[in-house]
């Protein structure tokens, strides 16, 4: 008995005759939604602008300027003359760098930092220069050897005297002398460099010392050895001439 086989071949998929219908109400809704959204946005903007105009937008002004630490050398009145011009300025719009640069111009201000403190305050932190010695009677040298105007308050500092432009040289030499004489508790009252380069010291007890213009540290150490001798302790020495190569000459007070 013979079997009949069906011929195999490609079969054609039946396609659906259904189509998506574009309903008229969808087209109307889509076309009407866009203008409505635009109108709504415009209405919100109008309401927002009207609301903002009714608000009293007064900027918060700087009402107070305070110092983080008290000043030791800088005149506070001079500082207020500079800082008070920022009173009333909008705290939000205030340029901190401008304030700092203005205060940096004051003579005793080394570094300055300004911070905004809400609602209306500026806090000023000032680092002042460190005074080292009086310079030529009417100025003060800082730790960099820069001459500054003498502050109003009194300073218990040594007096340095020298030609204009020799500030750093005289200050550095003074610091070396102070180390030598400070070993025995002696303090320098004045250090003077003459125009020709000769040096003269005055101790706090009134003793005047001439060192000449060379071998300054060696000669000052020689003077200290003499002052430490028992024979001269308690004696009233008026003047010491240390310009000799191997010794010193003393003048006793009468």
What is the helix content? 25-40%
Please identify the oligomeric state: single chain
List the domain count as a whole number.
Answer: 2
Q: What radius of gyration results from the CA coordinates?
A: 44 Å
Number of strands: 12
Task: Give structural attributes.
254 residues, alpha/beta, 9-stranded mixed beta sheet, 3-stranded mixed beta sheet, 5 helices, 12 strands, rod-shaped, Cell division protein FtsQ, membrane, FtsQ
Can you describe what's shown?
- Its main location: membrane.
- Part of a complex composed of FtsB, FtsL and FtsQ.
- One of its GO terms (cellular component) is cell division site.
- It holds the Pfam family POTRA_1.
- This protein is an alpha/beta fold.
- The protein folds into two domains: 61-128, Roll (Ubiquitin-like (UB roll)); 131-252, Rossmann fold (3-Layer(aba) Sandwich).
- The chain is 30% helix and 24% strand.
- It has five helices and twelve strands.
- It has helices at residues 24-54, 76-83, 96-104, 167-182, 216-227; strands at 64-67, 109-117, 121-128, 131-135, 139-142, 147-149, 159-161, 188-193, 199-203, 208-212, 237-241, 249-252.
- The protein has a nine-stranded mixed sheet with strand order 6-5-4-7-8-9-10-11-12, covered by helices on one side.
- A hairpin with a 4-residue loop joins β9 and β10.
- α4 packs parallel to α5 (216-227).
- The protein starts with 23 loop residues before the first helix and ends with a strand.
């Amino acid at each position: 008995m013979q079997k009949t086989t069906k011929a195999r071949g490609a079969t054609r998929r039946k396609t659906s005759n259904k189509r998506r219908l574009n309903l008229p109400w969808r087209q109307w809704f889509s076309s009407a939604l866009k203008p409505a959204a635009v109108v709504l946005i415009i209405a919100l903007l109008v309401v927002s602008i009207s609301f903002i105009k009714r608000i009293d937008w007064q900027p918060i002004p700087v009402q107070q300027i305070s110092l983080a630490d008290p000043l030791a050398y800088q005149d506070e009145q001079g500082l207020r003359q500079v800082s008070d011009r920022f009173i009333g300025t909008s705290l939000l719009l205030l340029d901190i760098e401008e304030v700092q640069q203005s205060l940096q111009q004051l003579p005793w201000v080394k570094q300055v930092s300004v911070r905004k403190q809400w609602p209306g305050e500026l806090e000023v932190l000032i680092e002042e220069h460190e005074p080292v010695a009086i310079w030529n009677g009417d100025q003060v040298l800082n730790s960099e050897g820069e001459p500054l105007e003498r502050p109003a308050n009194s300073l218990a500092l040594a007096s340095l005297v020298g030609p204009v432009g020799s500030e750093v040289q005289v200050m550095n030499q003074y610091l070396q002398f102070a180390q030598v004489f400070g070993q025995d508790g002696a303090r320098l009252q004045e250090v003077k460099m003459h125009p020709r380069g000769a040096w003269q010291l005055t101790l706090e007890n009134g003793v005047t010392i001439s060192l000449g213009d060379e071998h300054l540290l060696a000669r000052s150490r020689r003077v200290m050895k003499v002052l430490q001798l028992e024979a001269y302790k308690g004696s009233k020495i008026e003047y010491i001439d240390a310009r000799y190569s191997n010794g010193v000459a003393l003048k006793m007070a009468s």
